[in-house]
């Protein structure tokens, strides 16, 4: 933690940490404690008075089928986003690891979606699937399928999942590729000499050795799907039709800023904070125990 | 390459080409849409090859904006986005460098207390605590200012952690040598530590620039004055408006403009980008 050779006590270190601590206290700790406090209050619709109600907001939330619906939807959504994007990224990374010629070019052409803003990713997919003009609904219509994600909740959900998974492929691809590079070549060669073909080698050696990367990416993808997809949902569906794409983060925003239900929104914030903290703890435990195969 | 199997290699290329095609297709359509005029963009089927109106649309979007809008283009939003992204990236780097330096190189009371305080912030993305953070910014009178847009986002545990990691690998002999030469802490920090970590700083800058540029929810909340809008939040507004009057060529041109700067950063600074990504997340 501390350097063996270091400077003695003075006012300087306090001045150095001061900006970071100020920002942390004013914009992180104070708002977080406010959220905790507000989650125990009920405010009247005009914001004139508020009443301390203990855990009533939480009880209301858990009794609310809309909230449970949003909860289930968020899990379903993050599961599909994570598996779709990790699956295709793994396939592409294994292929890119195999080719010699052009692997740099493929990498460049596959990683740029990382830089696309979630809202812009939403716009790209919204345009492609636009029910009246979009190219894919036009093609689907010849196959006898009538695509309209503005009416059909399942189609809206599918579209949000596609856009979110598309944006995350780049990230997963890079980490899978790095994971594949770190697998010792001697292991693969030994298996090849023993007569294992590419498919067998992947199943018995490569995939098990990738499991730390896979687990790390799973946590990152779930965090991404939970918290960073707000822009995608807002651009494509705004939570609709009929709440069918209203994931938890969107509901916090919607109840707080549109519905002006401060206590309810704060209670949802507190639950989300709990989820974030849980996921971060999992992630850190994993980083500590991270396995290295090169020793 | 373990063994030579031409068929499998050809398959690998095929899968990669399909992958590249699927990944690039949405952006290609956006580019195509941005290069046609309104008439072509409202008849079915929509084109899949570029047209000839690209620069005309670019001019309209930059200087005039959408039809039925207020007649101002989006060029100032690009400027706002640039200012916001730069302020967030530079701000995060500066305050994290300073606090990592203090935590690694000084022994002082509450050192670990500060460390844990910074660590805790890692856990709370802005989406989770939007309403109370918004209230704080409103009470401080920071709505519709660049400070309100950026300062609440610049505390970052990841950057502090990364610099701490970097500083811990700097040999102790350097500080001893610097001391013998009569350098104080500030001198050592500016003349030795910062130059030594410049690749890490550059890599982090690439990641943070993208992060800052792509902010959506936060600018949406803290700006009500149109002069403060950023290009990314404009996309959401245009999609709502775009439904009433079909002007997809302009909407997609705006989207293209919002996407190009960060994508260019990733493509042209790929090595730094990859380094930054792996360093900050592990």
What fold name stands as the CATH topology of chain A?
MetI-like fold
**Which percent bin holds the helix content of chain B?**
55-70%
Specify the overall morphology of chain A: globular
CATH class of chain A: Mainly Alpha
Q: Which outline of chain B best applies?
A: globular
Kindly report the average pLDDT value of chain B: 83
Order of helix and strand elements from N to C terminus of chain B = HHHHHHHHHHHHHH
Evaluate the radius of gyration of chain A: 24 Å
What is the CATH architecture annotation of the domain at 76-222 in chain B? Orthogonal Bundle
User: Structural class of the secondary elements of chain A?
Assistant: mainly alpha
* Mean of all residue-level pLDDT scores of chain A: 83
Biggest sheet of chain A, strands in spatial order?
Answer: 1-2
CATH homologous superfamily descriptor of the domain at 76-222 in chain B: MetI-like
What does this protein structure show overall?
The complex is a heterodimer of chains A (295) and B (282). Chain A has 295 residues and is mainly alpha-helical. Chain A has one domain (74-288): Orthogonal Bundle (MetI-like fold), CATH 1.10.3720.10. Chain A is 71% helix and 2% strand. Mean pLDDT of chain A is 83; it is low at 291-295. Chain B has 14 helices and no strands. Chain B has helices spanning 6-33, 54-63, 75-105, 111-121, 130-139, 146-150, 157-168, 172-180, 185-196, 198-213, 217-222, 231-242, 248-268, 270-281. Chain B has a domain at 76-222: Orthogonal Bundle (MetI-like fold). In chain B, α1 (6-33) packs across α13 (248-268) and α2 crosses α13. The mean pLDDT of chain B is 83. In chain B, 69% of the residues lie in helices and 0% in strands. Chain B is an all-alpha fold.
